[in-house]
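Input (DUF1559 domain-containing protein):
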Amino acid sequence: MGDYAAAIGTTGFDYTLTFNVPNPPPSIPPTGAFVQANGLRATDFTDGLTSTLFFGEKHVPRKLEAKYPYDCGMYDGHNIICSTRSAGPGFPIAQGAFDMSIAFGGSHVGICQFAFADGSVRPVRSAIDELTLGLLSDRSDGLPVPSDY
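Output:
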């Protein structure tokens, strides 16, 4: 078990989603700091290492400690739900001890601690706007991140 999860971006997946439609099939690439089977270089973080989430506190709903899928072996590469989290629109930070979402979230009142790709550790408000959270979670969207998160 572990209390932290890798930040895989805004899509909910750490790999490219390809849709089964003809000519050409559309795809959605992963946007976070971790990508399945492919390492990333510092130069891949075009938004900057200081403004990209690397990993953060993993929310585990109260009374579901050591229960899949909320709290499970984080070193099992076959179950990414155990070791990764998305953040952004549709993936907000958990809002309380009994929040049932698979999300980032900590036991600190009003904040969740994150390590950023530059190695710094900073709190992010639990009530952060989902769009701003998405800007922090996407390593290369080219958009500025407001400073009041």
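Strands lie at 4-7, 17-18, 27-28, 53-57, 84-85, 111-116, 121-125.
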